[in-house]
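Human:
Class, as today's exercise, you are to examine the entry below, and be ready to discuss the fold:
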Amino acid sequence: MKAWSGRFKEQTLGDVEAFTESISFDKELAIYDIMQDFAHLEALLKANVISKESYENIKQGLNEILDMINSNIMDWDIKKEDVHMNIESKLYELIDEDAKKLHTGRSRNDQVNTDLRLYLKDKILEVFRLLKALKQSLIKKAIEHKDIIMPGYTHLQRAQPVLVSHYLLAYKEAFLRDSQRLIDAYRRIDILTLGSGALAGSDFALDRFLEASILGFSKISRNSMDAVADRDFALEYLFSLSSIAMHLSRISEDLIIFNTEEFKFVELPDAICTGSSIMPNKKNPDVLELIRGKTSRVYSSLFNLMVNLKALPMSYNRDLQEDKEPIFDATKTIIDSLKMMKIVIDGIKFNKSIYTGNLLLATDLANYLVEKGIPFREAHHIVGAIVAYALEQNKVLELLTKEELTKFSEKFDKDAKDIISPKSSINRKKTYGSTNEDFVNKQINISLLEYNID
């Protein structure tokens, strides 16, 4: 019998049951549904809505169902529509009439919202831990390669020399922002909506602060209509995951390029690469390509929910049943991708001979002229002419002689040759946060303390 069958004279069509069921995916929330059943039971007892005997009977039945769920022996039936009705029906099988009392004062509308918030609180903590582990791997890899200099890029063109450690710590900073976004999202998820009923609240004096305390929520919702209609918290969560996916995709792209024969900046371990079914020479970075590719799934999940919510009238609408699958898929995708990226970073090796001289020190020459009193725009023009000359002579800047430099400006002295080296370029940087060795080492030391790395 359907929970709402009293209103209807006809049986629900089988095709309708198959179309409207959500148990095939919302059983993912089963543990959280049981958790809030226990909390609601306590509130019902405190409000004298149920007797102590009924309370004990229901509690025993819920514990039995919890054991079934944990043991993976719970039967899920699409005829019972969703996780809430499956659990309620199973409770009736176990304890009979007392099971009918548990739903007093609540709706599946506030139930599912509470379940989803409990699920997201857990998943945010899991993603946060994985982000921390990835940041720790980036820091350790930065220490391992802290003396290697590489070309830094803008517009995918060689720009200026930077330390490999500086490059790796750049992604640590990006993932740090992702962690901060998750913390901020958690604050808005951490609100109890149970007790809001279908939309108008409950006729029973349920202690929502008691329920919040039992379930570990720091706040309770202030408007019952908004509470059951709200999925903003899920949007914010999915945006946070999308940001993580974007950063994972960017570092994947870098490492895919750096791993090519043309670059040869890095070497990926054989254990995370695959071969070709036809070309024996191939060593493909499939893990990185899949992380890059799976970013679209996470973006799609965010867009899916945004479109779902567009123009939904207040308050709850069945459209919101469609919120869970994109959330579950994006969560699994990010968790798997973070685990894979940590494996990649732990195993990757940077070539010690990444840096090869060409024109990357042009800015250093321009700044040298500024130090000699020439305005920067004029210095920029002079060094531009030197670069054109070097290209014509097929020379790198490091090999230009003092005599060649003075043809373009008499301000070049013998000390000009001292700065035309990648090491000098690195250590001439004076701003906090730059690629200067001392500043990078300070950032590493700060990170070691922040992330409890020995």
Summary: The longest helix spans residues 108-144.
